[in-house]
Amino acid sequence: MQSAAMTPYSGGARPLRRAGDHRPPPPPVAFEPDNHPGEDGIDIRGLIDILRRRWLTVVVPAVLLVGLALAYLVVTPKLYTTSALLLLDPRDQRVLQTEVLSAGSGSDAALVESQVRVITSDAVLGRVVETLGLANVEEFGGKSEDPVERAASALDTLGRRIAASRADRTYVLEVRSTAKDPVWARKVADAVTAAYIDDQNDAARAATRRANEALTARLSELQEQLRAAEDKVQAYRAANGLVGKDGSATTEQQLDELNKRLVEARAKLATAQARYDQISRSDAASSSEALASPVIAALRAQLADAQRREADLSATLGDRHPSVIKVRAEVASLQAQINAEVGRIAASARNDLERAKGDVAALQAELDRVTGQDVKDAGVLIQLRELQREADAIREVYESVLARAKETSEQERLEISSARVIAPAAMPSAASFPPRLFIIGIALALGLGGGAALALLRERFDDRIRNAAQLRRAGLDVLAVVPPFRARKRGPDGSFDYAIRLLRAELRDPVQRQAERSALIVASRKGDGSALVGLNLALAAVAAGERVLIIDADPVNRSLSAMVAPDASVGLMEVLAGKVRFTDALAGSGASGFQALPMAVTSKVSRYRPSRAAIERLITYARARFDYVLFVGAPLRDEPDARAIAEAVDQVALVLKAESTTRGDVAAALRALRIRGEKTCGIVLTMAGKATA
Q1: What is the pTM of this model?
Q2: In a designed cystine with 248, which of 244, 491, 568, 671 is the match (CB 3.0 to 4.6 A)?
């Protein structure tokens, strides 16, 4: 730490100032305000010190705000809050279907938020006002004699006392009610939930009723349209002779029957033709029909038997035997019967073919005739189908509307709200407003915070020196911190004596300072205690075994002389002017090791200002007889000539009074003490309490 005005002790050897060393003084460094943070960025200890020192500034705003908060709590009426919970069932109700509640349906989040607004709407709250008679309750309706005004006031007050919200991502709605009476708070909350459910039921029934009325009106229109369409169809049929099945023409039905018969006839013709072709291509006796005939099969069996007997008899009796001739006649008869039967089969096949051809020709002729008639009826049927389709479409719409009208008629009677109460309102046991602890806590926090800010602000604009830390942060060396001189109790540690001994040790004990045997004790202004510090420092040096000379160099105040030689007629000025010998002007006994060179009460040479050379000669002469020479200079604010002494001595101690010295005083003193060369310099802070040390 180093400044232009003072060179603090750094622990190393310092070369002594030599005579004739006239280096230019270093440039002055302005005393910066005490706004340097600690090593961690915030001087916590400094802040605590400021708040402790200005505790009244911190406490008074807090007390005032807490008092105002308590007054507010006393005059503010208490309010009680309770809440009820509603569940909006997200599943669609299907009362008229097999499943009453659908399993997979959900509810739109925007719709749920809309229900929150519905709960606090005038429609719902108006029901509550009417149900509970809130217009006649003074808390809600006021004191007006007009019932309309009371009702409006009750509705407006209830709107401010009711709040609804949705639990996050759920279908649960919370209805909160606030009132001066806890009983009314619970009643109003329950009444709001009941009014909301009733309002939802009424709204659903009204919507169903309107839909039913619209369907009924439309049903009458559709009924008239259907009747007109069916009448038009019947009239067209009658006008065009369309009396067939399903409204079709007779020719169309005949055409269908003829086509079917013609197909069957052609199939029979094909069968007969195939049978006839088979019989014609091969021997009739070997045809499949002949082979399959049981009569021919029996005759052939008899023929085979007869032929066998003929062969046997012919072989044994000869060809001319009567038995052989008889058997041959039987064989011929059987063969004739077989041929006759085969002929009948061929004739039957030919007859069937001819009959089938005739049937096909007859049906084809009839089909051609009916087809011609059907072509004429085609245009009429097209128009009939258009009329029929129109009538069918109207009938479908009519039946659908009729079924829906029946459903809505029943649904109006079975309408059930999807909302239900899952937690009715409970009786509140404690007031919800005003929040006492919160208000008092906020008032206390704001008061303490504002007081702390005010204390810091006052400290920021207060430029007084309060503790040694301020000086050290400015780069100045603090030699000692001296407590109040006249304190009745100096503390168990003897802090005053300790501070004086510390100052002596700082100036005299280090090896490198043994050769520094002269010092200047000077204050920034009158009353800072430089004379007391110098006198006690001299006594401490005497107690350590040194011979000490203390010199009063303050021609204005004579503070030191008033303590050691108040009636001195000669002193420093006379010695420097050569009017009096040095030894004749001393006060005190040389045997004690302590002597003083005072300032005369009235000096003829008071206007004389000694030069540096005179001061140096005096110091040289005094050092030959004393171990340590102390000058107590005039306050720098009053007598800036102390600089000449400061340049002549080896050590300089600037005395500042805590709580009285300002930064400007310190800066002015430092400017006045600009010293050439290097010397031991430092600050002694006096009248410093324990908190400011």
Answers
A1: 0.48
A2: 244
